[in-house]
Write the structure tokens for this entry.
Amino acid sequence: MVLLVEDNDDFRFYLKDNLKEHFHVIEAANGKEGWQKALALHPNVIVSDISMPEMNGIDLCQKLKNDRRTTHIPVVLLTALTGEEQQLRGLTTGASDYLTKPFNFEILLSKLKNILVQQDLMRKTYSKQMEVRPSAIIIDSPDELFVNKALQVIERNIGNAEFSVEELSSEMCMSRVTLYKRTLLLTGKSPVELIRTIRLKRARQLLENGYLTISQVSYKVGFKSQKYFTKSFKSEYNILPSEYLASKKEETVR
């Protein structure tokens, strides 16, 4: 989804008409409206003019980057103003890229596709990191901070069978909708799936140690019933917990 923020009706229509062949496009006629739609709809990327009434593109970008609910959304700024100082001002707000009008539409299209490809690669990278070691994420960017904090909150509550998405969103200080969008974007999983996945990974670790029964493991990772735990484990790893435990014991004997 691309949010297009542009006060010139004709130019906004031109951009939307061309972008809609490649993306789902939503529109805003000024920065204030763009901010409201960014909060409500959580677009994958925002294309914004700089010179606009109500709220200009620079202020919009700063507002987006200073709010944890929207800081992850890439912004491409458009302007008719030239000069390195203006370009630098735009980029120092946290914008991902900058284009001076008039510009070749294919260049904008290429930039947007590259941004979305990078988002997809980032999501796959986080998913791979979680599969290897849920807690081992180096804190660097706001996205990494978000994933790291979410994992820490889940792991801290891993034995609590009543721990819910509502509690996770509360601890993350964001709405359920924002949590869902960011979690899905960065990990490829919904919050419910992420919680279950981390529970199951911890269960696999406990089973590998061989000191606990399946029932005890199920309880320790927050499943309300052994039956549901068994079903979830089989769905995640394509093997029953009992079979997995037996295979680990055989490896130990060898």
